[in-house]
Inverse folding.
């Protein structure tokens, strides 16, 4: 750590002590409270110059080095501030894609609105096209209507994070069925207030509604709101998907470490400090959390030094998802019957809220989201360990 980074850490920690929301979980048991908390916290961070440290220096608070961004995320986790779930797609996925692929006119139109709090979501996954992004079937036909050059879009999108609250959508559509599947994709910027758009929240097993499905019926999107050329959607989408990971995993790991006190309190409350089995399991969990944080820290150090390898992020993702499962499982077990009672969901509260049954069920999503554990293991095996690629299919004949 350099003196400049330590000064940044001190200054930001002091700012957080004065500005970070207090008792925010109590206000996030309703959607209205969640929206108000998220919007208010993002506005404060933007005004303080801490909302978009990964943007270029021409924007307020931008131009931070990766090392400086790491300090900011570490302090946000340490202070137990609300994760910026509502604006995450906007400041990372949307902004990064616009910076790389947007025209000067598109950047001038959309980027300032993101900093002002406009919410974006992602319209990639579909029924039957989740992990196989090239299988997108939502169709867009280019036509001229009333002298306007537009795409008419019909289809359905699934698992759109915060889609029911969003203003704009990063939309991947099919404009051609000729040639390779990837070659027929096009990338559009969709106004979710356009005629023919219906957003319906998806009620999850633990009570949250983090995702929405989008229904698109004869929706008109101006050709001017296309990113890249027609047929370049696959390349643009890869830029979107690569826009974040390292800092997010660092923050999530640090938040899990910071929440260990919740399990320690359960042990004390139950008078189980002398229970050798419980103490052993707690010690193992704490060690695994420390190891996950160390992996995340090393990953960022490698990236800062320009030494990141393909597969390094998969190591952190796999370690985090498995350790989170153990964290929530231990809390649920120690909490006993009381931990299994239904309690109000803390919308946007993360996976370490102390609402143990909800946290436990939510933890399973992280073994799938952002690439399943099986996918991460394949990447590690093939790209880091140099093992043979997994066969495309397995049959009894193959085995014989």
């Amino acid at each position: 750590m350099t003196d400049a980074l330590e000064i940044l850490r001190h200054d930001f920690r002091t700012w957080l002590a004065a500005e970070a929301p207090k008792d925010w979980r109590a206000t996030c048991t309703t959607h209205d409270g969640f929206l108000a908390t998220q919007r208010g916290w993002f506005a404060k961070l933007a005004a303080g110059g801490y909302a978009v440290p990964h943007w270029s220096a021409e924007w307020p608070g931008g131009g931070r080095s990766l090392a400086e961004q790491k300090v900011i995320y570490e302090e946000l986790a340490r202070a137990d501030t609300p994760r910026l779930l509502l604006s995450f797609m906007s400041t990372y996925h949307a902004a990064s894609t616009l910076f790389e692929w947007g025209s000067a006119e598109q950047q001038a139109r959309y980027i300032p609105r993101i900093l002002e709090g406009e919410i974006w979501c992602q319209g990639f996954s579909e029924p039957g096209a989740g992990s196989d992004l090239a299988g997108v079937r939502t169709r867009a036909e280019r036509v001229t209507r009333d002298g306007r050059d537009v795409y008419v879009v019909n289809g359905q999108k699934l698992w759109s994070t915060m889609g029911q609250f969003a203003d704009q959508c990063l939309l991947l559509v099919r404009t051609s069925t000729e040639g390779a599947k990837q070659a027929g994709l096009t990338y559009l910027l969709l106004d979710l207030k356009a005629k023919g758009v219906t957003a319906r929240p998806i009620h999850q097993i633990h009570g949250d509604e983090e995702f929405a499905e989008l229904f698109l019926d004869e929706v008109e999107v101006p050709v001017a709101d296309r990113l890249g050329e027609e047929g370049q959607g696959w390349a643009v989408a890869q830029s979107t998907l690569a826009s974040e990971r390292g800092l997010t995993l660092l923050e999530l790991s640090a938040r899990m470490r910071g929440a260990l006190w919740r399990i320690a309190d359960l042990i004390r409350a139950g008078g189980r400090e002398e229970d050798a089995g419980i103490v052993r399991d707690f010690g193992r969990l704490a060690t695994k959390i420390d190891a996950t944080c160390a992996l995340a820290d090393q990953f960022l150090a490698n990236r800062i030094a320009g030494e990141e390898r393909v597969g390094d992020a998969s190591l952190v993702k796999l370690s985090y998802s498995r350790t989170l499962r153990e964290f929530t499982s231990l809390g649920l077990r120690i909490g006993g019957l009381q931990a299994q009672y239904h309690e109000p969901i803390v919308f946007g509260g993360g996976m370490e809220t102390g609402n143990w049954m909800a946290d436990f069920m939510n933890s399973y999503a992280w073994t799938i989201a952002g690439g399943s554990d099986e996918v991460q293991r394949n990447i590690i095996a093939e790209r880091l360990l140099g093992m043979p690629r997994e066969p495309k299919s397995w049959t009894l004949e193959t085995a014989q």
Notes: The longest helix spans residues 276-304. The chain is about 50% helix and 15% strand. The first strand starts at residue 120 and ends at 123.
